[in-house]
Amino acid sequence: MLLFFISLYLLLNIAVGAWAARRVHSAQDFVLAGRRLPLALAASVTFATWFGSETIMGAPAKFVEGGIPAVIEEPFGAALCLFLVGLLVARPLYRLNLTTFSDYFRIRFGRSAELLSALLVIPSYFSWIAAQFIAIGIVLKVVTGIDQAYGVIISAAIVMVYTLLGGMWSISVTDFLHNAVIVVALVIVAVPLWQELGGWEAIQQRTAGKPQFWRFAPEWSFHGVVEYVAAWITIGLGSMPQQDVFQRVMSAKSESVAVRSSFIASGLYLTVAMIPLFIGLAAQFLHPDLPMATDQDRQLLIPNMVLQHGNLALQILFFGAVTSAILSVSSGAILAPAAVFGENVVKFLKPDLSDKSLLLTIRLAVVVITASCVWMSLARDVSIFDLVGESSAFSLVSLFVPLLAGIYWRRATLMGCLASMAGGLLVWVVCLLLDTQTLPPMIWGLLASITAMLVGSLVTNVMSLRDVRR
């Protein structure tokens, strides 16, 4: 019975995609929903950017072990990112009427910056998408007993089909429905657990043996502060220059709606994302029989609790909510690199590409990217939480500095932009290989990106000044 309802829910997503396909007449309709989303849909689709496997399964697994210090990156860093997008990025980028994030680099710096940014944006999504596929494969394995690999393939095919059909239109409508299911399901699961635990005082008593569990401030040592800052900026800054955030915010019907939807989504994320953390902690306290030995066991903590201790109605609602969340994130994450590939790589090489051919190219890219991420999710044995962090770190060291410098520093130049992208990424990769301990590789990469932007831009400005004087 449970499998029947989950299957029905998945098929409903395809039906929504088929309905939304009727509204797709151009590449911009497919990528940005025609820039016509009202505030409710815009806020909903922006909130759903990351509310997926890492929030419902990955973060609770970290939280039950390490408390607040272990989840600064997600959900707190994610909420910070959405707030900063509304504060710093949404308004200036919306005015430019862009289709993709890399379009900005073409307008601000030139075509070579557009191409390099696109080549960096595309691979940064593979870890993110793979994390979602792994999560839904795990869920289907728990619910049905089928092999995780088959669960990954089936779910990826469903996400691919409804993304192919309606693009951002289908994502927007399904996200709105998904979010309603998610919030209702999480509240229904959480309220009885809160009552059974005995409220906040009982939770504090049960965690009294872990004095650092509720610590929000950093550990006041060099390494403690560095790790704390790194946790905040991995998603908090690293996800600002990503296409999935861009396309969701830019789908709003006006500049003010784009800004307000980012702020609303940030607030929703910070509040709703606390519920899975509590549910995971309550499951650990109330059901010590649940397996907790490995990281994968902890990722399955909430699904196992619902499956073993919840009634059928609760199981249908909860697993529908989990499926909802993961589908929401997966669809937008697949569309993002596909749009960049079509708009900023293929169109870069073929400037006279028709809109119809561009739309076909993006849809073909959706298929290829989905297949690549399925392979990646089956080939790598990495936790969901780590895969998400890896994706954000990639864009932090290569794209964050050029984005902010381009908007707010008039002296930023093409040379500085290219040096910042390439230098930050190169230093990050080298530090990963060397396993640097003094500072995390991500911090070294970010510092290199900042330095390269400053040096490259200042050198260009000095050379231009000399040419003028001659």
What report would you give on this structure?
- The chain is an all-alpha fold.
- It has a single domain (about 1-380), classed as Sodium/glucose cotransporter.
- It is built from 21 helices and no strands.
- It has helices at about 1-20, 25-30, 40-45, 55-65, 70-95, 100-110, 110-125, 125-145, 150-195, 200-205, 220-235, 245-250, 255-270, 275-285, 295-300, 300-310, 310-350, 355-380, 385-410, 415-435, 440-470.
- The longest helix is centred in the middle third of the chain and has 50 residues, at about 150-195.
- It is globular and about 80 Å long.
- The model has no long low-confidence stretch (mean pLDDT about 85).
Quick structural summary:
This protein has helices spanning 2-20, 27-32, 39-47, 53-66, 72-94, 101-108, 111-124, 126-144, 148-197, 200-206, 222-236, 243-249, 255-272, 274-286, 295-299, 301-309, 312-349, 355-379, 384-408, 414-434, 441-469. By secondary structure, the chain is mainly alpha-helical.
